[in-house]
Amino acid sequence: MYAYIKGKLEARGSDYIVIEAGGVGYLIYTSQNTLQEAGRLEQGQEFKAHTYLHVREDAMDLFGFATHEELSVFKLLLTVTGVGPKVALSLLSAVSPSKFSLAVITDDVKTLTKAPGVGNKMAQRIILELKDKIKKEQLDLKAAAGPDLPQEPREGSRLAEAVSALMVLGYSQAEASRAVASVYSDGLGLEEIIRNALKGLVR
């Protein structure tokens, strides 16, 4: 319903911000990372939140984030069995989107369990279900990026893993492939490739 809300930052609490836009004050639940971003602003300064309206039988709650990547991870987490908004916010407060996507594609359960309320079983379920979603995209990097790829990616290679990590963040196969190809170097580690590719995508 709302792609984003842009307006004056009027207040911030332990897990929410209030943005006034068009004479309406929107209470938006958010992560600690977005709260830190909002904390850099003075009251009344402009802030943009990428939003998601969560509707239940007894409530309608608005969630919002400073970056599109955080919103993408939030929405993906809600598709995982047993994961609700509270757990999704806990994860986003403990782990950045790039760290989260890296944890998913490298089976890093330990990183996900840093979030309060996320145990080993839930972390394993999150990794399994989100990796299955990527597989269903029928990842074909060579067809997507063509001759720009520095090598033909193999399943499990850093190139393939980096593209999969960006797809976890909501980018299309083609977008992820182009971004990774533009920054790829044999001397870079997987996390650095992902981080550099993200910088190019958010410009």
Total count of domains:
3
Q: How do the SSEs run, as a string of H and E? A: EEEHEEHHHHHHHHH
Largest sheet: 5 strands, antiparallel
User: How would you classify the quaternary structure?
Assistant: single chain
Instruction: State the distance separating the first and last CA atoms.
Output: 25 Å
**Mean pLDDT reading:** 86
Binned, the helix content reads 40-55%
Q: Helical element count?
A: 10
Short description, anyone?
The protein is α+β, with helices and mostly antiparallel strands and 203 residues long. It is 49% helix and 18% strand.
Would you write up a description of this structure?
This protein is an alpha+beta fold. The protein folds into three domains: 4-65, OB fold (Dihydrolipoamide Acetyltransferase, E2P); 68-136, 5' to 3' exonuclease, C-terminal subdomain (DNA polymerase, domain 1), CATH 1.10.150; 141-202, Helicase, Ruva Protein, domain 3 (Orthogonal Bundle). The protein is built from ten helices and five strands; from the N terminus they run βββαββααααααααα. It has helices spanning 32-39, 68-78, 85-94, 97-105, 109-112, 120-136, 141-145, 158-168, 173-183, 190-202, and strands spanning 4-12, 16-21, 24-29, 46-55, 60-65. The protein has a five-stranded antiparallel sheet with strand order 3-2-1-4-5. A hairpin with a 3-residue loop joins strand 1 (4-12) and strand 2 (16-21). Helix 4 (97-105) packs across helix 8 and helix 8 packs across helix 10 (190-202). The longest helix has 17 residues, at 120-136. The protein is globular. The model is unreliable at 138-145 and 149-155 (pLDDT under 50).
